[in-house]
TrEMBL record:
Residues 273-388, 655-766 form the ABC3 transporter permease C-terminal domain. It comes from Draconibacterium sediminis. It is a multi-pass membrane protein. It comes from the Bacteria. Residues 11-221, 422-614 form the MacB-like periplasmic core domain. Its main location: membrane. This is ABC3 transporter permease protein domain-containing protein. It is found in: Cell membrane.
Length: 773
């Protein structure tokens, strides 16, 4: 079979292998996403609380709750077996015997944490490991890194410069867990009873025999009562809901979580691309296999004349398709193993190739292979075994000689998919570039951020800023509690003396110099200064001023903590959390707290390694052992396009695979078409057709089919991308230019695939084609 038509090897084998590899990667990725939190024994008995908070018609779903959700709800709902809350900590530095371990992540939890999630300790007593202040349970990997042993219960570890006692060691949680930690500190360490806001993730383990739906309703009703006193002063409406632990990663309703939840858009994109690439490969294979039958007409007829039945011929064809499919599958395994690490990095998932060889993975792969053999073998088997015996013995078939409808379908489907992906890619690329050109409202260029500060640096932040300002290459220095481009605090605000309710607003706590260093553009007013009066001053963004009313301006008094705060400036809106595709929420900059978690240094131009070393030298003069963590503020905002950049890479990959398979398939079809029409071409040349006329005739049908495919693709692409663009506040208009670029590219691909074979056929000596007639 392979000797008779090498195109089946050089086209179908790699084409099917690429399609199967795409499906295999999808299966591994989906298995990873579906496995989140499934390792918890209690996954089907744990409910997590969330609050849907509505203000001015806009609803945000928060997984964080009041402390009262933990202290009061269990006593109201008897079906609750145990409960815990988690407070999301931060990356910090741990220290033991003067050895520092930076970037360890800590969480805080209540004493029943281990019962709620069905976890056991490998060292220590789970019942009291998180009882009391400044107790910590550490993971096995952290214990080995810090103490070189798991037997470390009772040892004292400094965390954020505070001593804590190790009370237990636990096995590391798998990467497919919606939360993770290196250190788990007792909740009493941070005294959450003093907090009045939404801060804590709340989980309830329900009795196994209880009706989860009914218990969930009881928990929601109890929490709604607790939330009324919290929401009413801010004119907020709160509706509580519960979510099953097993469903959190894929189906959580919350907008912010302990870890990024599954991006269903990416799942659908990957699934769609895998399906489309496999579809192109299968259409290619079936089409070429049927056309390959033209060379086997006499063989098929001879077999039938010698008594071969349709079932015998069908078995022959299914055997051949099985061989090609199995070889393609083996090649696909190699391709999958080769690209899996790059795919894992692209999706930022801890996916492993070994997942494919689980029981469910093997079943999926075998199912795909069986379907592939049945689908790819059924049509050729039926079509070729039905050839007319008399005509076939003459080496002719009226069915085969007619212009194949299947060939047309193949070309149209392949190029419809390819053009759809190309045009989608062009629009996504244009949208991302457009967002990057939208002004941020401040200038992040040449700003170096410094984090991982310790108490010595925090206390000396003002002096450090003064010294850094003396460096010749430094333009401005600032410090803040909240990090630019990161999360904010939520507060309630209203006009001072206004009897109305508070309105929700985001808060950045900063020090004098922050707004100037960030080069915020002011509509009116001035920046903070170091005066005592400015500790009771605020700067609003335009969105906040608009929310509070048209009479709020510089000099207005506002109420946020039951004392008057003076508006000293209104800043133009700037993107302080998200990128320009998202709306800008109201923000207030305050100056009442001296806590410093971030330093910012604006340089006059790009910094050299020597200049960065000078910055480190100044800071370390106050804390020699500090492990300094620096970053460019531009990188913080560049990273906000991660999802969009990932989508570009996914669509680019899909379009590339579709183009490659379509190009190879069309080129193979061109070879077969030219061979089938070589006598016609010879006759045309004998009766006077020029080479250009012959080429034009051979190209005409292909170009017509490609144009039909372009029209189909543009329709689908327009509606799909129009819906996608609605997710952005700032967005491009879908221009005909985007489609013209895609069309030109598709026509170029078609010309390259068909043109060379057409030119060879047109320039061939007609005697070669007619000598045997």
């Amino acid at each position: 079979m392979f000797r008779r038509n090498p195109l089946l090897v050089f086209v179908n084998l790699p084409g099917l292998a690429i399609g199967l590899s795409a499906v295999l990667l999808l299966s591994v990725y989906l298995k990873h996403e579906l496995s989140y939190d499934q390792h918890f024994q209690t996954k089907n008995n744990v409910l997590r609380l969330y609050n849907a908070v509505t203000e001015n018609g806009n609803t945000t779903n928060y997984a964080i709750c009041l402390r009262k959700a933990y202290t009061e709800i269990p006593s109201r709902v008897p079906e609750i077996r145990s409960a815990t809350q988690i407070y999301n900590g931060w990356n910090t530095t741990a220290e033991f015997e003067k050895q520092k371990f930076p970037n360890v992540h800590m969480l805080f939890a209540d004493k029943d944490f281990f019962d709620v999630f069905g976890l056991e300790l490998i060292q220590g007593n789970a019942d009291d490991a998180l009882v009391g202040e400044k107790n910590v349970v550490i993971t096995r990997s952290t214990a080995l890194k810090v103490f070189n042993t798991e037997d470390c219960v009772g040892k004292v570890l400094n965390v954020s410069e505070d001593p804590v006692t190790v009370t237990g060691v636990i096995n590391d949680l798998p990467n497919n867990t919606h939360f993770n930690f290196d250190l788990l500190l007792s909740m009493q360490t941070v005294h959450p009873e003093n907090w009045g806001g939404l801060e804590l993730y709340t989980y309830f383990r329900i009795d196994e025999n209880a009706d989860l739906a009914s218990v969930g309703e009881k928990i929601a009703a109890a929490n709604n009562e607790l939330m009324k006193p919290w929401g009413e002063p801010f004119s907020l409406t709160v509706e509580t809901g519960t979510e099953l632990l097993a469903d959190l990663h894929l189906h959580s309703a919350v907008d912010f979580d302990l870890s990024p939840k599954a991006n269903l858009t990416h799942v659908f994109i990957i699934a769609g691309i895998a399906f489309l690439v496999l579809l192109i490969a299968m259409v290619n294979y079936i089409n070429l296999y049927v056309l390959h039958g033209e060379k086997r007409i006499s063989e098929i007829a001879s077999r039938k004349s010698l008594g071969a039945t349709q079932s015998t011929l069908s078995r022959l064809f299914f055997t051949e398709t099985s061989v090609i499919s199995l070889l393609s599958f083996v090649l696909a395994l190699g391709l999958t193993a080769l690209v899996q690490p790059a795919f894992a990095r692209l999706m930022k998932s801890q996916i492993e190739l070994s997942d494919m060889f689980s029981f469910s993975g093997i079943l999926l792969v075998m199912g795909i292979l069986t379907i592939l053999i049945l689908v790819s073998g059924a049509y050729p088997s039926y079509y070729l075994s039905k050839l007319n015996l008399v005509n076939a013995l003459k080496g002719k078939s009226s069915k085969v000689k007619r212009k194949s409808t299947l060939s047309r379908i193949a070309v149209i489907s392949q190029f419809s998919i390819s053009v759809f992906l190309i045009s989608a890619l062009v629009i996504v690329f244009a949208q991302v570039n457009y967002l990057k050109e939208v002004p941020l409202g401040f200038n992040p260029g040449n700003v170096i951020g410094i984090t991982n500060l310790n108490n010595e640096v925090r206390r000396s932040a003002s002096s450090i800023a003064d010294e850094l300002s003396q460096l010749a290459f430094v333009e401005d220095v600032a410090s803040s509690d909240h990090g630019m481009g990161h999360g904010s605090s939520g507060q309630g605000i209203k006009k001072y003396g206004d009897p109305g309710n508070f309105k929700g607003i985001n808060e950045y706590r900063v020090q004098p110099g922050f707004a100037k260093t960030m080069q915020l553009e002011l509509v009116d007013g001035r920046y903070f200064n170091n005066s005592e009066a400015d500790k009771r001053a605020v700067i609003l963004n335009e969105a906040a001023a608009k929310m509070l009313g048209p009479d709020v301006k510089v000099g207005s008094l506002l109420d946020m903590f039951d004392e008057p705060l003076t508006v000293i400036a209104i800043a133009k809106d700037f993107y302080y959390i998200d990128h320009p595709g998202a709306p800008i929420a109201p923000l207030v900059l305050t100056n009442y707290r001296t806590n410093v978690n971030n330093l910012y240094v604006r340089t006059k131009e790009g910094t050299t390694s020597a200049q960065l070393a000078q910055i480190d030298e100044v800071i370390k003069s106050y804390s020699p052992e500090l492990i300094i963590s620096k970053f460019q503020l531009t990188d913080v905002y560049a990273n906000k396009y991660t999802n969009e950049e990932r989508m570009i890479k996914l669509v680019t990959t899909g379009a590339g695979l579709a183009i490659i398979i379509s190009f190879i398939g069309l080129m193979a079809l061109s070879v077969m078409n030219v061979n089938r029409r070589k006598k016609e071409i010879g006759i045309r040349k004998v009766i006077g057709s020029t080479e250009s006329q012959v080429v034009s005739e051979l190209l005409k049908e292909t170009f017509i089919l490609v144009l039909i495919a372009i029209a189909i693709a543009f329709t689908g692409s327009y509606f799909t991308m129009h819906q996608w663009l609605q997710h952005f506040v700032n967005r491009v208009s879908i221009s005909p230019v985007y489609f013209l670029i895609s069309a030109a590219f598709a026509l170029f691909i078609g010309f390259m695939a068909v043109g060379w074979q057409s030119w060879r056929a047109a320039t061939r000596n007609p005697v070669e084609a007619l000598r045997y007639e």
